[in-house]
């Protein structure tokens, strides 16, 4: 069934296709929804069939590859994911006679850059999997619109946040990096979700130790006693209890300068580079602190690094939490805190 609307994006055309495949060796693919031309859809179905035959599709785990189809682009990036309906999986667990059909969803973009958003697309499919009820009415009112909106809902939130906040984006970057709680007021549901997704992607979750992250969240909450508030009631968002530093302001300019091209994949790459630089700075500071435990000159290097890196306020809080149980390192951090206050 052809979709009425393709999801256009800054990286070229985008499309979606969903197919059902019975769970057996002799499977067949039946089309549920697509916005591809007939010839390209047949080629895509053939590609997916080959992947299924090879056992290369794992339930709930998306993949991104480059495929050649009979559409204007020579090659397109294809995210594809195989899944089963959540409620039928539960029934099958109770009754082995219940047949649970399997589904494959494909999202096509202008390149393999969808890989940057693979986790977001996996979550997007997970939501579909939970809510999927393939009655004709539900298919037309929920499933098909959901599939057609994949690019806007899963790929574009970061871009929309950049365009909304512009120079004030530095406040959001600082909040994400410092684990500061953020409260959004007077925003529509879409904007609130966009901000939440941006903060989740911009934070260092998964890149620093889990215990450190938890302790830092507690420490920041206790220290500030209040969240950063984003008020979206006016034409421009207003911030209260916001913080920033040179590091976040420099990276904000990278986002704002990239906004001219309007490419969501570029924004995501900038965000990944932002996090990578933050992690590099944290690791450098840790190395300097280890050296400073035995060397006063290294202590001075620590101090100069914190003064010049642009995010000394945040880095010092992170390493303070990580070194809380290490007396010698803790002493170095205490001295650095005193220097930074002067």
Automatic annotation (TrEMBL):
GO terms for biological process: vesicle tethering to Golgi. Pfam families: Njmu-R1. One of its GO terms (cellular component) is trans-Golgi network. It comes from the Eukaryota. Residues 1-15 have a biased composition (Gly residues). Residues 1-23 are annotated as: Disordered. This is NJMU protein. It comes from Oreotrochilus melanogaster. The lineage of its organism: Eukaryota, Metazoa, Chordata, Craniata, Vertebrata. The gene is Njmu.
């Amino acid at each position: 069934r052809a979709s009425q609307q393709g999801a256009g994006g800054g990286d070229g055309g985008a499309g979606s296709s969903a197919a059902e495949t019975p769970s057996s060796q002799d499977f067949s693919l039946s089309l549920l929804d697509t916005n591809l031309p007939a010839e390209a859809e047949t080629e895509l179905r053939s590609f997916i069939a080959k992947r299924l035959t090879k056992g290369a599709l794992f339930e709930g785990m998306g993949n991104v590859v480059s495929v050649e189809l009979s559409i204007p682009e020579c090659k397109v990036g294809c995210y594809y994911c195989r899944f089963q309906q959540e409620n039928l999986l539960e029934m099958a667990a109770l009754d082995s006679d219940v047949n649970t059909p399997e589904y494959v969803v494909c999202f096509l973009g202008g390149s393999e850059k969808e890989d940057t958003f693979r986790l977001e697309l996996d979550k997007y499919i997970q939501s579909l999997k939970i809510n999927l009820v393939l009655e004709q009415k539900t298919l037309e009112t929920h499933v098909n619109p959901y599939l057609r909106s994949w690019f806007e809902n899963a790929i574009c939130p970061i871009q929309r946040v950049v365009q909304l906040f512009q120079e004030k984006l530095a406040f959001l970057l600082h909040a994400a990096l410092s684990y500061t709680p953020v409260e959004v007021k007077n925003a529509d549901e879409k904007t609130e979700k966009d901000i939440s997704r941006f903060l989740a992607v911009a934070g260092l979750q998964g890149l620093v130790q889990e215990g450190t992250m938890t302790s830092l969240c507690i420490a920041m909450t206790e220290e500030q006693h209040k969240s950063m508030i984003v008020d979206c009631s006016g034409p421009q968002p207003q911030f209260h209890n916001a913080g920033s530093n040179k590091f976040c302001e420099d990276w904000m300019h990278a986002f704002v300068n990239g906004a001219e091209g309007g490419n969501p994949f570029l924004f995501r790459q900038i965000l990944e580079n932002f996090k990578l630089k933050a992690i590099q700075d944290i690791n450098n500071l840790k190395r300097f602190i280890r050296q400073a435990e035995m060397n006063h000159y290294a202590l001075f290097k620590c101090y100069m690094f914190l003064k010049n890196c642009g995010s000394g306020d945040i880095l010092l809080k992170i390493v303070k939490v990580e070194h809380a149980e290490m007396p010698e390192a803790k002493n170095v951090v205490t001295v650095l805190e005193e220097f930074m206050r002067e």
